[in-house]
Design a protein that fits this description.
The complex is a heterotrimer of chains A (335), B (256) and C (325). With 335 residues, chain A is mainly α. Chain A contains 15 helices and two strands. The chains are: A mainly alpha (335), B alpha/beta (256), C alpha/beta (325). Chain B: Keywords: ATP-binding, Nucleotide-binding.
Chain lengths: 335, 256, 325
């Protein structure tokens, strides 16, 4: 405070930096990702006459819903310094479990829904227990679970799609109250709730602290192992929810559902500003990351561009996003 | 008045015995120096006091009751704080998040506890101001601060919740001369407020100038328990290396 | 072939981008949704659709997804395609259920639906209340039976010996039809030929090679192998030749793709029951056009299959050969 006026002036951040700081503090989102999303949407609107419509906007959200829920799971685990490579397989596994309970056992809809999400949470619990109690690295444990959950899905379903869910369940995937697809509603509600949890509760703040410095968290008295365990259960449960959306959308439990989805989910989280090595992440950011990918895919589809180019475009956006992020972080830490 | 009593602490890691029954105590308003060579067991001993490690045998008593069965978080709640040599900060989080880590104030909204960011920021700012620390901005990640500034945050974290005992592990090792005086002044202030301070340091000049008593660890035992006023550099150095005439080494240390 | 297609699509996109002011003529556009083009079979079918559309002078756009297991991606692409309001959706669904919600919307919007290559299950379509205009493809049971006939023709009706069947992905209807068609016909024509193993190769060339290796170890006197697609048959070829039994085992695949043609010409693969995907694609467009112009078409259009062998190709007289791509 006792510094000379000139020095204060030199230190005062510019308009952009102040805006950025406010965005990060209040929305937990970096401005660059928002700008990329808006720019991309504008570009698509110019290139394709079909892009700018309510039904297409809902299409984008619908196409983003499964991967979006999975990306939320990835955000929690990544920002705690962990990794969950089993997300896609657990999605397939839980969808098949739910379908089996509903179709083969004829259980009513609420039980089948609980079974779907519960199957995911159970897989997450196994991941978490092995990681925190047996000290096997998360990479290895979840890579193992990737194979185990997929194999189990194929065993339970006998390698076949389990078709014909009860109508009440299909409504979750295909219903349109007020013209809005149910998966979009479920996805948005999940995103809002989890955003509040990660950004504004002690649980969320501790998640970031553990990912930032496990030592700091431990010495502060946080029960790091238990917290980690709950994160893997949460991650598995969210993968189960994604599995529910997937299965109810196509009215069947597909044992091959969600192959390689974990990588897409992680990509969305990272484009949205989550630190791959922990300590930073927000659900709103991840939503923007997932939407950037969704808009890109939708726009390129409308333009009838080959899916191969879409994969290239998404890969490019990922690298660009992390480059901008790193550049900004380096610049800021020099001040 | 004895505040913290540590008795008969033993600890081994596999086949390596690190501590063979250490006893010491620190009173309210007392500054205890804890010195010893590298590997003497100082850090292990302090981690047993804070609860990060479990002792194989012995007891840690704070204000008359054993805290041995308490977790690190519970011991902090009872008033045992430590400032680590590596500071143990979460570097991507801001000042308030670090100061309140694990003890965030909450506000109930619709039956859900949300972290009270406003209160956290105000209290953090107040604490930083009280410490007279000079930080560029309170809402910035602490990783962007200088070493001294980061230490201020670590100190603020230890002092915000009215601790009874504060353990400082090499707080002056990485500081400039002017900053060292600030830390020593702070230790004296804490003592005047009736807080028990345990200072771990290799800088024997600092230890001699600020402590009331000095415990010397040697091969996992409390080899000496010296009253600082009645002690010379030679006595301390001699105890650290395990006896003999150490006048020359002491003279070297005294030159600092 | 692929390169050409890429260029067309890419230039179409660039054109669309450049000519944003004058959007592509939406009236009468055909939407064609493939599985993936990263497979010669689907590539050839896509080519057939494209050539058929050009010949019939209709507007079309083709979309595909990254792999033939990307069920949800395909559904998303399908929904997006409806935004362009095509008059017809010609779809090759990844499985019997993944496109159902999209097809329902298409039906509600009055868009004609065509099942390309028979991936949709009629019973499920009935349950969902979806009516398709027609399905077009090869008869897979018949293709399997043709394979059996050819094998018996090679070995003789009174031949004896062990035969290996390599199935497709467990639960896939196409693969099941081909293998059951083969097995039934084989039992009928040459009871002496015994199927000693029928194992799922999951459409995977490497897996098929491993299965062949294992069975060759158990039955060194193996006389025939029938694989539910060419990729797996080519995997079997590698194992048979590596075991020094090249020429001793009759190996038959299904599809007639370009890799298989090359292998047959090199005297390695014995035969492939060619599905003529090019013809399927071409005829699909022609028939859609007929329907839209008020004509009647059969609800089930079967495109013939052809047993491709070195002799047939060397002779070069079969008119269907023109459709082998």
């Amino acid at each position: 405070m006792a510094t000379s006026p000139t020095r204060t002036d030199a230190r005062r951040p510019g308009r952009w930096a102040r805006l950025q700081a406010r965005s990060i503090e209040q929305l937990h989102v970096r401005l660059e990702s928002l700008i990329v999303l808006i720019a991309l949407s504008t570009l698509m609107a110019i290139l394709s006459p079909y892009f700018l419509s309510v039904s297409n906007f809902l299409n984008i959200l619908l196409a983003t819903s499964t991967i979006g829920v999975l990306a939320i799971a990835a955000t929690f685990v990544l920002s705690s310094g962990g990794l969950d490579l089993s997300l896609g397989s657990v999605l397939g596994f839980s969808g098949v479990c739910g379908a089996a309970v509903a179709v083969k056992l004829g259980a009513p809809m609420p039980i089948a829904v609980i079974a779907t999400i519960g199957a995911g949470a159970l897989a997450g619990l196994v991941n978490g227990l092995i990681i925190t109690r047996a000290f096997v690295p998360a990479f290895i444990v979840t890579l193992g679970m990737l194979g185990i959950a997929r194999g189990l899905a194929l065993v339970i379903s006998d390698g076949r799609v389990i078709y014909g869910l009860p109508n009440a369940m299909v409504y979750l995937g295909q219903g349109r109250p007020f013209g809005i697809p149910m998966p979009v509603i479920i996805f948005i509600v999940t995103a809002i709730v989890t955003h509040m949890v990660l950004a504004y509760t002690r649980y969320g703040r501790h998640t970031l602290a553990i990912g930032d410095s496990e030592n700091a968290a431990r010495t502060s008295g946080i029960n790091v192992d238990f917290h980690r365990l709950t994160l893997y259960v949460l991650s598995g449960g969210l993968a189960g929810l994604a599995g529910l959306l997937f299965a109810t959308r196509i009215n069947s439990g597909d044992p091959t559902a969600g192959i390689a989805y974990e990588l897409t989910a992680i990509t969305a989280a990272i484009i949205g500003g989550t630190n791959l090595f922990g300590g930073r992440g927000s659900i709103l950011g991840t939503m923007i990351g997932a939407l950037i990918m969704g808009v890109l895919q939708n726009g390129l589809n409308l333009l009838a561009v080959q899916s191969y180019y879409q994969q290239m475009a998404i890969g490019g956006v990922l690298i660009l996003a992390v480059f901008i992020d790193q550049y900004q972080v380096r610049k800021e830490s020099r001040i | 008045m004895t505040l913290l009593t540590v008795s008969g602490i033993r600890k081994s890691f596999g086949a390596v015995d690190v501590l063979h029954g250490v006893d010491f105590s620190v009173g309210a308003g007392e500054v205890l120096g804890l010195v010893g060579d590298n590997g003497a067991g100082k850090s292990t001993l302090m981690k047993i006091v804070t609860g990060m490690y479990k002792a194989d045998a012995g007891d840690v008593v704070l204000g008359g009751t054993s805290v041995l069965d308490l977790s690190p978080g519970e011991r902090r709640a009872k008033g045992i704080e430590m400032i680590y040599q590596d500071l143990a900060l979460a570097k991507q989080q801001d000042v308030a998040a670090n100061i309140f880590l694990g003890r965030e104030p909450v506000r109930r909204v619709f039956g859900v506890n949300f972290v009270d960011r406003t209160k956290m920021k105000q209290d953090a700012q107040a604490m930083i101001t009280r410490l007279g620390a000079n930080l560029p901005a309170i809402n910035r990640p602490v990783g962007s601060f200088s070493g001294g500034q980061q230490q201020s945050v670590a100190i603020a974290r230890a002092l915000t919740f009215n601790p009874k005992v504060v353990i400082m592990d090499e707080p002056t090792a990485a500081l400039a001369v002017r900053e060292v005086q600030g830390v020593l002044d702070l230790i004296r202030q804490l003592r005047d407020q009736g807080i028990g301070v345990i200072l771990i340091s290799h800088r024997l000049n600092d230890v001699l100038s600020v402590t009331d008593r000095i415990v010397v660890l040697h091969h996992g035992r409390a080899a000496a328990n010296l009253v600082t006023k009645e002690t010379t550099m030679t006595d301390v150095v001699s105890a650290i290396v395990g006896g003999g005439d150490m006048a020359e080494a002491a003279a070297h240390e005294a030159q600092g | 072939m692929f390169n050409k297609m890429f260029k067309t699509k890419l230039s179409a996109a660039v054109l669309a981008a450049a000519a944003a002011a004058s959007p592509v003529q939406a009236e009468g556009e055909y939407g064609i949704l493939m599985k993936t083009l990263a497979n010669p079979f689907w590539g050839a079918m896509g080519q057939g659709v494209e050539d058929g559309a050009k010949a019939a002078d209709v507007e079309y756009f083709i979309q595909a997804v990254e792999s033939d297991q990307a069920a949800e991606s395909q559904l998303n692409v399908c929904n997006t395609m409806l935004e362009r309001r095509p008059v017809a959706m010609i779809t090759a669904a990844i499985n019997s259920t993944n496109l159902l919600p999209c097809l329902k919307s298409a039906q509600d919007a009055g868009i004609k639906i065509v099942d390309l290559d028979g991936n949709l299950d009629p019973a499920i379509l009935d349950a969902e209340g979806i009516e398709i205009t027609f399905r077009i493809g090869s008869d897979n049971v018949l293709a399997g039976a043709q394979g059996a006939e050819f094998m018996v023709g090679q070995l003789g009706a009174d031949a004896t010996g062990p035969v290996l069947v390599i199935e497709g992905l467990s639960g896939n209807i196409t693969g099941q039809n081909r293998t059951s068609g083969f097995a039934d016909k084989l039992a009928e024509l040459a009871p002496g030929l015994e199927i000693v193993a029928s194992l799922p190769g999951d459409w995977d060339r490497g897996k098929a090679a491993n299965i062949t290796n294992d069975i060759l170890t158990r039955n060194p006197d193996l006389v025939g192998i029938f694989a539910a697609n060419d990729g797996m048959a080519l995997g079997a070829v590698e194992s048979v030749f590596a075991a020094g039994k090249g020429g001793d085992v009759v190996i038959i695949g299904v599809d007639g793709n370009s890799d298989a043609v090359t292998s047959i010409q090199a005297g390695r693969l014995t035969a492939s029951v060619a599905q003529l995907p090019y013809l399927v694609g071409q005829q699909a467009v022609e028939n859609v056009k007929a329907v839209l112009e008020g004509g009647d078409v059969e609800p089930q259009i079967t495109v013939p299959t052809l047993v491709l062998t070195k002799e047939v190709m060397d002779a070069g007289t079969d008119p269907l050969l023109e459709s082998v791509k």
